[in-house]
Amino acid sequence: MSTSIYQEGYVLAAVDDSPYAESVAGYAGWAASRLHAPLQLLHTLNPDSVGTNRDLSGNPIDCPASDTGLALLERLRGNARKLYGIEAGTTQHYGTLLDTLQALEPQMRLLAIGKRGEDSNPSDHQLGSNLERIIRAVRRPVLVTSGPLLPVRRFLIAYDGGSAGQQCLDGVCAGAFFEGMECHLLMATEPSNKHQAQLEKAANRLRQAGFEPSTEIICGAPEVVIAQHINSREIDMLVMGSYGHSRIRNLFVGSTTTHVLLNCPKPVLML
User: Fold this and answer.
1) pLDDT for 203-244, tens place per residue?
2) pLDDT digits (tens, 9 = 90+) for 159-184
3) Apex CA 60: angle with CA 17 and CA 43, to 5°?
4) Is CATH 1.10.150.130 what the domain over 154-270 is classified as, yes or no?
5) How far is CA 130 from CA 239, 248, 271, in A?
6) Where are the domains of the chain?
7) How far, in Å, CA of 142 to CA of 136, rounded?
8) CATH class of 10-145
9) Three-class SS state of 29
10) Alpha-carbon distance 192 to 224, whole Å?
11) Model pTM score
12) Is residue 221 left, alpha or beta, with left meaning phi > 0 and alpha meaning psi from -120 to 50?
Protein backbone atom coordinates (compact mmCIF):
# COMPACT_ATOMS: atom_id res chain seq x y z
CA MET A 1 0.00 0.00 0.00
CA SER A 2 1.35 3.42 -0.99
CA THR A 3 2.26 5.88 1.76
CA SER A 4 2.93 8.88 -0.47
CA ILE A 5 1.22 12.20 0.21
CA TYR A 6 0.89 12.51 -3.57
CA GLN A 7 -1.49 9.58 -3.98
CA GLU A 8 -5.22 10.08 -4.48
CA GLY A 9 -7.42 10.84 -1.49
CA TYR A 10 -8.25 13.55 0.99
CA VAL A 11 -6.43 15.15 3.88
CA LEU A 12 -8.20 14.02 7.06
CA ALA A 13 -8.19 16.09 10.25
CA ALA A 14 -9.12 14.06 13.34
CA VAL A 15 -10.46 16.58 15.86
CA ASP A 16 -12.00 16.51 19.31
CA ASP A 17 -12.94 19.04 21.96
CA SER A 18 -9.33 19.68 22.97
CA PRO A 19 -7.06 22.75 22.70
CA TYR A 20 -5.48 21.14 19.62
CA ALA A 21 -8.62 21.15 17.45
CA GLU A 22 -8.00 24.55 15.83
CA SER A 23 -4.36 23.68 15.19
CA VAL A 24 -5.13 20.25 13.72
CA ALA A 25 -7.79 21.59 11.36
CA GLY A 26 -5.66 24.61 10.45
CA TYR A 27 -2.59 22.62 9.48
CA ALA A 28 -4.77 20.05 7.70
CA GLY A 29 -6.26 22.89 5.65
CA TRP A 30 -2.79 24.21 4.90
CA ALA A 31 -1.68 20.73 3.76
CA ALA A 32 -4.78 20.29 1.62
CA SER A 33 -4.14 23.63 -0.08
CA ARG A 34 -0.50 22.67 -0.76
CA LEU A 35 -1.56 19.31 -2.19
CA HIS A 36 -4.65 20.63 -4.03
CA ALA A 37 -6.51 17.89 -2.20
CA PRO A 38 -9.97 17.68 -0.58
CA LEU A 39 -10.18 18.29 3.15
CA GLN A 40 -12.27 16.13 5.48
CA LEU A 41 -12.90 16.93 9.16
CA LEU A 42 -13.62 13.97 11.44
CA HIS A 43 -15.08 13.81 14.94
CA THR A 44 -15.53 10.45 16.65
CA LEU A 45 -17.80 9.42 19.49
CA ASN A 46 -16.18 6.82 21.71
CA PRO A 47 -18.71 4.17 22.82
CA ASP A 48 -17.49 4.53 26.41
CA SER A 49 -18.24 8.27 26.56
CA VAL A 50 -21.77 8.55 25.15
CA GLY A 51 -25.21 7.57 26.38
CA THR A 52 -26.88 4.24 25.82
CA ASN A 53 -29.81 5.42 23.66
CA ARG A 54 -29.33 4.17 20.09
CA ASP A 55 -31.21 4.36 16.81
CA LEU A 56 -31.85 1.28 14.63
CA SER A 57 -28.33 1.58 13.16
CA GLY A 58 -26.73 1.57 16.59
CA ASN A 59 -25.79 5.26 16.54
CA PRO A 60 -26.34 7.37 19.68
CA ILE A 61 -29.40 9.65 19.91
CA ASP A 62 -30.09 12.56 22.25
CA CYS A 63 -26.36 12.71 22.85
CA PRO A 64 -24.86 16.04 24.04
CA ALA A 65 -21.40 14.89 22.94
CA SER A 66 -22.72 14.39 19.41
CA ASP A 67 -24.22 17.90 19.31
CA THR A 68 -20.99 19.41 20.66
CA GLY A 69 -18.96 17.54 18.06
CA LEU A 70 -21.18 18.67 15.19
CA ALA A 71 -20.88 22.28 16.34
CA LEU A 72 -17.11 21.88 16.50
CA LEU A 73 -17.00 20.51 12.96
CA GLU A 74 -19.07 23.40 11.62
CA ARG A 75 -16.84 25.97 13.31
CA LEU A 76 -13.67 24.38 11.91
CA ARG A 77 -15.29 24.08 8.49
CA GLY A 78 -15.91 27.82 8.56
CA ASN A 79 -12.27 28.43 9.48
CA ALA A 80 -11.06 26.36 6.52
CA ARG A 81 -13.28 28.34 4.19
CA LYS A 82 -12.01 31.64 5.58
CA LEU A 83 -8.31 30.74 5.67
CA TYR A 84 -7.89 28.66 2.52
CA GLY A 85 -11.08 28.98 0.48
CA ILE A 86 -11.67 25.24 0.99
CA GLU A 87 -15.13 23.72 1.37
CA ALA A 88 -14.27 20.95 3.80
CA GLY A 89 -16.38 17.87 4.26
CA THR A 90 -17.41 16.89 7.77
CA THR A 91 -18.21 13.51 9.27
CA GLN A 92 -19.02 12.18 12.72
CA HIS A 93 -18.38 8.50 13.43
CA TYR A 94 -19.45 6.36 16.35
CA GLY A 95 -16.62 4.11 17.49
CA THR A 96 -13.01 4.29 18.60
CA LEU A 97 -10.75 6.69 16.77
CA LEU A 98 -8.30 3.97 15.73
CA ASP A 99 -11.02 1.74 14.29
CA THR A 100 -12.50 4.69 12.43
CA LEU A 101 -9.16 5.76 10.94
CA GLN A 102 -8.35 2.25 9.78
CA ALA A 103 -11.74 2.07 8.07
CA LEU A 104 -11.17 5.43 6.35
CA GLU A 105 -7.52 4.76 5.49
CA PRO A 106 -8.10 3.78 1.82
CA GLN A 107 -9.66 7.20 1.14
CA MET A 108 -7.03 9.35 2.87
CA ARG A 109 -3.59 10.48 1.76
CA LEU A 110 -2.58 12.35 4.93
CA LEU A 111 -3.80 12.30 8.53
CA ALA A 112 -3.55 15.36 10.77
CA ILE A 113 -3.93 14.81 14.51
CA GLY A 114 -3.06 16.61 17.75
CA LYS A 115 -0.27 15.59 20.08
CA ARG A 116 -2.84 15.01 22.81
CA GLY A 117 -6.59 14.54 22.88
CA GLU A 118 -9.41 15.85 25.04
CA ASP A 119 -8.92 13.06 27.59
CA SER A 120 -5.26 13.94 28.18
CA ASN A 121 -3.94 16.18 30.92
CA PRO A 122 -2.02 19.06 29.27
CA SER A 123 0.38 19.14 32.23
CA ASP A 124 1.44 15.52 31.65
CA HIS A 125 4.66 15.21 29.68
CA GLN A 126 3.41 12.36 27.55
CA LEU A 127 1.63 11.76 24.27
CA GLY A 128 -2.04 10.98 24.03
CA SER A 129 -2.57 7.24 24.32
CA ASN A 130 -4.37 7.13 20.97
CA LEU A 131 -1.54 8.83 19.10
CA GLU A 132 1.06 6.14 19.65
CA ARG A 133 -1.33 3.40 18.55
CA ILE A 134 -2.37 5.40 15.49
CA ILE A 135 1.21 6.04 14.34
CA ARG A 136 1.88 2.31 14.59
CA ALA A 137 -1.27 1.27 12.76
CA VAL A 138 -2.16 3.84 10.09
CA ARG A 139 -0.33 3.33 6.81
CA ARG A 140 -0.43 6.94 5.74
CA PRO A 141 1.72 10.00 6.41
CA VAL A 142 0.80 11.57 9.76
CA LEU A 143 1.04 15.26 10.63
CA VAL A 144 1.17 15.74 14.42
CA THR A 145 0.41 19.27 15.59
CA SER A 146 1.50 20.72 18.90
CA GLY A 147 0.66 24.41 18.99
CA PRO A 148 -1.12 27.29 17.27
CA LEU A 149 -1.31 27.52 13.48
CA LEU A 150 1.71 29.44 12.16
CA PRO A 151 3.14 30.01 8.66
CA VAL A 152 5.44 27.24 7.41
CA ARG A 153 8.50 28.72 5.69
CA ARG A 154 11.35 26.53 6.97
CA PHE A 155 11.37 22.78 7.41
CA LEU A 156 13.91 20.47 8.99
CA ILE A 157 14.54 16.91 7.84
CA ALA A 158 15.74 14.66 10.66
CA TYR A 159 17.88 12.25 8.66
CA ASP A 160 19.32 8.99 9.96
CA GLY A 161 20.93 7.54 6.83
CA GLY A 162 18.74 4.43 6.99
CA SER A 163 15.53 3.28 5.33
CA ALA A 164 13.40 5.67 7.38
CA GLY A 165 15.54 8.57 6.20
CA GLN A 166 15.35 7.44 2.59
CA GLN A 167 11.57 7.22 2.84
CA CYS A 168 11.54 10.76 4.19
CA LEU A 169 13.65 12.02 1.27
CA ASP A 170 11.34 10.23 -1.15
CA GLY A 171 8.38 12.12 0.25
CA VAL A 172 10.09 15.51 0.23
CA CYS A 173 11.52 15.19 -3.29
CA ALA A 174 8.56 13.51 -5.00
CA GLY A 175 6.37 16.59 -5.49
CA ALA A 176 5.68 20.24 -4.81
CA PHE A 177 4.46 20.05 -1.21
CA PHE A 178 7.62 21.75 0.13
CA GLU A 179 8.32 23.87 -2.94
CA GLY A 180 9.63 27.34 -2.15
CA MET A 181 10.48 26.56 1.47
CA GLU A 182 13.84 26.83 3.19
CA CYS A 183 15.27 23.34 3.73
CA HIS A 184 17.47 22.17 6.61
CA LEU A 185 19.02 18.70 6.82
CA LEU A 186 20.25 17.37 10.18
CA MET A 187 21.87 14.17 11.39
CA ALA A 188 21.90 13.70 15.17
CA THR A 189 24.84 11.34 15.46
CA GLU A 190 28.60 11.07 16.00
CA PRO A 191 30.48 12.92 13.22
CA SER A 192 32.37 10.51 10.96
CA ASN A 193 33.39 10.13 7.33
CA LYS A 194 30.58 7.62 6.84
CA HIS A 195 27.92 9.93 8.24
CA GLN A 196 29.30 12.92 6.34
CA ALA A 197 29.09 10.92 3.09
CA GLN A 198 25.50 9.90 3.89
CA LEU A 199 24.58 13.49 4.63
CA GLU A 200 26.15 14.79 1.43
CA LYS A 201 24.41 12.13 -0.65
CA ALA A 202 21.07 13.14 0.84
CA ALA A 203 21.83 16.83 0.29
CA ASN A 204 22.67 16.18 -3.38
CA ARG A 205 19.35 14.46 -3.84
CA LEU A 206 17.57 17.45 -2.36
CA ARG A 207 19.52 19.80 -4.65
CA GLN A 208 18.46 17.76 -7.66
CA ALA A 209 14.85 18.26 -6.53
CA GLY A 210 15.33 22.04 -6.44
CA PHE A 211 16.16 22.64 -2.77
CA GLU A 212 19.21 24.39 -1.34
CA PRO A 213 19.60 22.54 1.96
CA SER A 214 21.77 23.64 4.84
CA THR A 215 23.43 20.57 6.38
CA GLU A 216 24.75 19.75 9.82
CA ILE A 217 25.83 16.77 11.93
CA ILE A 218 25.46 17.21 15.69
CA CYS A 219 26.32 14.58 18.28
CA GLY A 220 23.72 13.97 20.94
CA ALA A 221 20.37 12.45 21.80
CA PRO A 222 18.12 12.96 18.73
CA GLU A 223 15.19 14.36 20.70
CA VAL A 224 17.43 16.97 22.36
CA VAL A 225 19.49 17.87 19.28
CA ILE A 226 16.42 18.20 17.06
CA ALA A 227 14.51 20.38 19.55
CA GLN A 228 17.52 22.67 20.00
CA HIS A 229 18.03 22.94 16.24
CA ILE A 230 14.39 23.81 15.70
CA ASN A 231 14.60 26.63 18.23
CA SER A 232 17.95 28.02 17.10
CA ARG A 233 17.09 27.96 13.37
CA GLU A 234 13.46 29.04 13.83
CA ILE A 235 12.20 25.92 12.06
CA ASP A 236 8.44 25.78 11.35
CA MET A 237 8.00 22.04 10.69
CA LEU A 238 9.95 18.87 11.39
CA VAL A 239 9.89 16.14 8.75
CA MET A 240 11.01 12.62 9.63
CA GLY A 241 10.65 9.16 8.20
CA SER A 242 8.45 6.52 9.74
CA TYR A 243 9.71 3.08 10.70
CA GLY A 244 7.55 1.12 8.27
CA HIS A 245 4.71 -1.12 9.38
CA SER A 246 6.35 -4.13 10.91
CA ARG A 247 7.39 -5.53 14.28
CA ILE A 248 10.45 -3.25 14.11
CA ARG A 249 8.22 -0.18 13.89
CA ASN A 250 6.24 -1.37 16.89
CA LEU A 251 9.46 -1.59 18.90
CA PHE A 252 10.97 1.72 17.89
CA VAL A 253 7.99 4.02 17.59
CA GLY A 254 7.65 3.99 21.38
CA SER A 255 11.22 5.15 21.95
CA THR A 256 13.04 7.63 19.71
CA THR A 257 9.96 8.74 17.77
CA THR A 258 7.95 9.27 20.93
CA HIS A 259 10.73 11.30 22.54
CA VAL A 260 11.08 13.49 19.44
CA LEU A 261 7.33 14.12 19.32
CA LEU A 262 7.29 14.97 23.02
CA ASN A 263 10.15 17.45 22.78
CA CYS A 264 9.39 19.04 19.42
CA PRO A 265 7.66 22.43 19.79
CA LYS A 266 6.54 22.48 16.15
CA PRO A 267 4.35 20.23 13.98
CA VAL A 268 5.92 16.95 12.93
CA LEU A 269 5.23 15.38 9.53
CA MET A 270 5.98 11.66 9.52
CA LEU A 271 6.41 10.36 5.99
Assistant:
1) 999 999 999 999 999 998 888 899 999 999 999 999 987 644
2) 988 888 888 899 999 888 999 999 99
3) 30
4) no
5) 21, 19, 19
6) 10-145, 154-270
7) 11
8) alpha beta
9) helix
10) 20
11) 0.87
12) beta
